[in-house]
Design a protein that fits this description.
By secondary structure, the protein is of the alpha/beta class. It is built from three helices and eleven strands; from the N terminus they run βββαβαβββαββββ. The chain has a six-stranded mixed sheet, with helices on both faces. Helix 1 crosses helix 2. Bound molecules: inosinic acid (IMP) and magnesium ion (MG).
Amino acid sequence: MSDNVSGSICPPEVHVDNMTFQVLFSPEEIRQRVQELGAEISRRYDGLNPILMVVLNGSFIFASDLMRSLDIACEVDFIKISSYGNEMTSSGEIKMKKDYDALVKGRHLLVIEDIVDSGLSLQFLKRKFELQDPSSVAFVTLLHKPENSRLDFKLDFVGFDIGSEFVLGYGLDYQQNWRNLPAVYVRREEAGEPDASSGNTV
Ligand code: IMP
Ligand code: MG
């Protein structure tokens, strides 16, 4: 069976590989929360000229909306890492796929993530950036799975806390697909199915 999206631009359900995903956060809910985060971040970083460090691939859509909700001077740079490969769960091993260019010594860094699951990616990035002697390193994520994450530091800005179910859309992929969906979707568990907390991500 081929994957398909039926209905309008924001379909209520998406059918992928015999799984059904339903809307968890609508485009309007996301827009509102991004505006709130933007206002909070603008207040916190006013006059500090932060570097927004976008963690590719998943956070590119969130980052572009968040950045446009800021009313302060800021720079942007990109880093690409992967922790999942093509497996259904995190490999636990972080690989650098593309390094950033900015000189971060003495600068305020705000790392932008799409979702914090195990937290291993952010632990890795925090260590990496701190070695470069920035003035500060903080983290904003659209989504956080607190039941799964084993971070030994606090996230600075969180859009939404969610359960441990697999989600896609608004930049988040399932086997590299469906990042284009304008809402965040969560897998609907069907009766008699194993758990829904798996998928492939980068
Ligand atoms: P962590 O290192 O386990 O926190 O994983 C972080 C990365 O895995 C995120 O930046 C996402 O790219 C990806 N990821 C984790 N959970 C999901 C999910 O439910 N859907 C899609 N991608 C996910
Ligand atoms: Mg990510």
